[in-house]
Amino acid sequence: MKRFGTLLSFLGIAVLTLLITMLLILMVGSNVDQAFSGFLSGIFGSFYSASEVLVKATPLILTGLGVAVGSRSGFINIGAEGQLYMGAIAVTGIAFWMHDLPAIVMIPLVILGGFVFGGVWSVIPGFLKARFGISEVITTLMFNYIALGIVGILVRTWLKDPSSALPMSAFLPDAATLPIILSSTRLHAGLLVALISVVIIWLLVWKTPAGYEMRAVGLNPRACMCSGISVYKNILRSSLISGGLAGIAGVCEVTGLHHKLIEGISPGYGYIAIIVALLGKNHPIGVVISALGIAALQVGSLGMQRMAGVPTSISSIIMGVVVLLILARKRIFRRLLTDE
Does domain 46-309 have CATH number 3.30.1890? Predict the structure, then answer.
């Protein structure tokens, strides 16, 4: 009965989301049937459209996974956006500095560099939280603006392409670019990097003593202190992994899609990652599913705009509605969930 009530509650959320979406479409003066037709054709209308869902899901999986790892240890990472940009800086600097390396060496090196840069950018707020009790919500958020500012300086100075008047770097060497895994699409090997990361994090967090300690610290840090588990060490460890995964997302965006460093390399993936982790219940498999769902929503909204003139901003409203409904699920459907 409990599982049946839970299933009905999520079905109710889906119905409410659908009704709210229809209301929003009517409010902007568009045809509902045409809008939903555009939404579906935007996702499934062609092989390229379907591949775009995976392209957008790749950075969401990595950043969402990073936020989820941090949350499991009580480290609330709002800074995945900045950590993504630090990973983008790392890959660009390494690729130009060691441009003679072959791809078989360069690709693992830039991924490692992105992990280190993103991880260090996250460890600083982690240290401030563990050592001085300073809220990581504030520090990680502020570090986002610092990281974006650093990128803005670099693409106008040391990393600027001398042949272009625009603030961006030169194109990366071929050895530092990820291969396309489906011809005639933009789907690159970054998706494989993301899926491998999902498996590694699942094994680390759920199948190792270190992962058990991180989860324990997130559940009850005081009990961990009494039992000899270091809260300080585990917060640092989780913040390093959290930021490192977001840094890898930056590496994949540069090496897989843009092939150069630009200021607007992320349309807010680090912030959407918070929603991805929340909807995925901070579990690797849940993160993959929610990342695919949000990516499909974003791609489908472009189809709605083309066919029915529906603003793409509606996708952001829908994401917010879904989050609010899930957070309020037990109160809205309390009669169905009385046994939870």
Answer: no
